[in-house]
Design brief:
The complex is a heterodimer. By secondary structure, chain A is of the alpha/beta class. Helix content of chain A is 31%, strand content 23%. Chain A has a seven-stranded mixed β-sheet, sandwiched between helices. In chain B, 34% of the residues lie in helices and 15% in strands. Chain B contains ten helices and 14 strands. Chain B has an eight-stranded mixed β-sheet, with helices on both faces. In chain B, strands 2-3 form a two-stranded antiparallel sheet. In chain B, helix 1 crosses helix 2 and helix 4 crosses helix 6. The chains are: A alpha/beta, B alpha/beta.
């Protein structure tokens, strides 16, 4: 499993009912179900991801999360996960609100566009940043809503949510060394947040 | 739809079997409380049963299906109605699974129905056959499963009315069923669905040859039954499929021949569907089975349904087709909604397919991959192959 997914999994309490939005091939959910006694299901838009989930025995609904989570009752889950998907959504604020409707707690991970490498590429080269985590050229990228850590925190304030935990990540998706915590918005390549209703 | 996507082989020659499951001494007790006996069931088994019957998959057929789901009865070019999905190496893989397809209660292809002989009179039941429900169909399926040494089927798979039976099975016996695969089905017909049913039934009931259901000495109410089939067939195809298949093409000439004979290809097609239906279906079965569908509403008391499902272990796969306007995707989503509320493991996918409701019978590659993947994993987790 990818290193950043390990971090996400670590923020999900054992035994939770989990909804994983943009669950890809279902490896995170499979891990949570097997190792952490969780139950739950995924939502995935791609055909390949959907079939990979089925073949792992991970319950999966094929669908477009930008359209909301119709059919899922309020507070139905304990935790909703959105890993490395926020920046590819058309309506990120709406989706976050939907997430906080169906669960009290959400775990989100995303790349930090305020990372110094991104800033440097834009400032010194005058071109849109391209990196290992964001490898696409500007004209052909699924990543249409990039943000910095501060931008995300502003969104949580705007939506009246509480950022309860934040794990900073390095470029490999592993927890970043402690010194990164001194200037997170400049030094962290990404982050995993756990947010709750106030 | 392409032959390149073909997987596996056909079963070849198969045989229908018959068994009497309920007798005068041990009658079928219907949901209504009425008794029915004897109940004979026609079914076809494919593949090998495990010692504990744990590899059994039941196939529930739709309104006008029969027990010959796969393989053929002597004419390889006329295989069973789901031959493209059942067979060695096919998505419902008879090399892995013991597959059983019964003709449903109330049918006319070997299982007891309204045109069977009523032992108390020696004549066909006709309209004296009791009203029954989808739950009663499931009771008979379960009696067959028990007879065949299958206490807990691995899965029940069905499309349309077949999917409704699978849903009912899971709802009534959530501990005795590994998984339900519910394809192009519904938990409740809409007013529009019932309206089409009503027109079809009116065609039969108002045909003078129907004779209040006692037509057996004189022959079927052919006019009414074929008309019923024509109406229903319109709902099975999407507008797109009809346009592609027939357009406004003429049947026998280059120029229109105004008048009231069959002129357009689509007219000829419907007429053919109606007429060929007479050879294989019975008007009384059509009345009773469509009525079962109209009244089917297992989530009417949703809180109760959720409670019953909550304790069970059944896993679910739901599939809908984007051009199906008989049971469009909202029907499947509604089932998913209630299953999620009961915290069941449920997977759902809407498959793009131009063929409308009929898609569930056709070889749509993504659809077949989905069913195959789900069943393979179910089998692997049963045998511990993925541990």
């Amino acid at each position: 499993m990818r290193a950043d997914l390990q971090v996400v999994a670590g923020l999900v309490p054992a035994g939770s009912q989990v909804l994983d939005l943009g669950c890809g091939d279902g490896s995170l959910l499979e891990h949570l179900m097997r190792e952490r006694d969780c139950r739950g299901s995924g939502v995935e838009i791609s055909d390949d991801g959907f079939l990979a989930c089925l073949e792992r025995g991970v319950p999966v609904l094929q669908g477009d999360i930008d359209r909301g989570l119709d059919g899922i009752a309020d507070d139905h889950y304990d935790v909703v996960i959105l890993s490395q998907t926020l920046h590819a959504l058309r309506r990120p604020a709406f989706v976050v609100q939907e997430m906080m409707r169906v669960a009290e707690c959400a775990v989100l991970s995303f790349p930090n566009f305020g990372h110094w490498r991104a800033r440097a590429q834009l400032a010194l080269r005058g071109r849109m940043p391209v990196s290992r985590t964001l490898p696409h050229p500007w004209y052909d990228t699924p990543n249409i809503h990039l943000c910095t850590l501060l931008d995300f925190q502003d969104l949580t304030v705007e939506l009246g949510l509480r950022a309860e935990r934040c794990v900073l990540l390095d470029a490999d998706g592993r927890p970043a060394p402690e010194r990164v915590g001194r200037r997170p918005n400049l030094l962290a390549a990404g982050a995993v947040y756990r947010i709750t209703r106030p | 739809m392409s032959t390149a996507a073909d997987t596996g082989t056909s079963l070849g020659l198969v045989e229908t079997r018959r068994v009497t499951l309920f007798t005068e001494d041990d009658p079928l007790v219907l949901e209504s409380g009425e008794h029915l006996a004897p109940v004979e069931v026609a079914y076809e088994p494919y593949g090998e049963r495990d010692a504990d019957g744990g590899n059994a998959i039941f196939i529930c057929h739709a309104l006008t299906g029969d027990s010959n789901a796969a393989g053929h009865h002597g004419e390889p070019k006329r295989p069973g109605w789901w031959d493209n999905i059942i067979g060695p190496g096919r998505p419902i893989d008879t090399d892995r699974f013991y597959v059983v397809c019964p003709n449903l209660l109330g049918g006319c292809q070997g299982t007891t129905g309204p045109s069977s002989i009523d032992p108390s009179t020696g004549a066909p039941y006709g309209l004296r056959f009791p009203m029954f429900s989808v739950a009663d169909m499931v009771s008979v399926h379960r009696a067959l499963a028990a007879h065949l040494g299958v206490p807990r089927p691995l899965a029940v798979v069905g499309g349309s009315l077949g999917g409704m039976q699978a849903l009912q099975w899971a709802l009534d016996h959530p501990d005795d069923l590994g998984a339900a695969v519910i394809i192009a089905a519904t938990s409740r017909l809409t007013a529009q669905n019932i309206a089409f049913s009503a027109v079809a039934r009116a065609a039969i009931l108002r045909d003078p040859e129907f004779r209040d259901g006692d037509y057996h000495e004189h022959g079927q109410p052919a006019f009414g039954l074929s008309l019923a089939r024509m109406v229903a067939h319109i709902t099975y195809l999407s507008e797109e499929a009809m346009r592609e298949k027939f357009g406004r093409r003429l049947q026998n000439s280059e120029v229109p021949r105004p008048g009231f004979d069959v002129d357009f290809q689509v007219e000829s097609y419907l007429q053919h569907q109606g007429e060929s239906f007479l050879r294989r279906f019975d008007a009384l079965s059509y009345l009773y089975l469509t009525r079962c569908m109209d009244y089917f509403d297992p989530f009417a008391d949703e809180a109760d349904a959720v409670t019953r499902l909550r304790g069970g272990r059944t896993r679910f796969l739901l599939v809908s087709f984007d051009t199906d306007w008989r049971f469009d995707t909202s029907h499947s989503r509604e089932i998913v909604r209630v299953l999620l509320a009961a915290h069941r493991d449920v997977s759902f996918r809407e498959i793009p397919s131009p063929w409308g409701h009929d898609s569930f019978l056709l070889q749509v590659p993504e659809y077949h991959r989905t069913v195959a993947g789900f069943l393979r994993q179910l089998d692997d987790s049963r045998t511990g192959a993925d541990e």
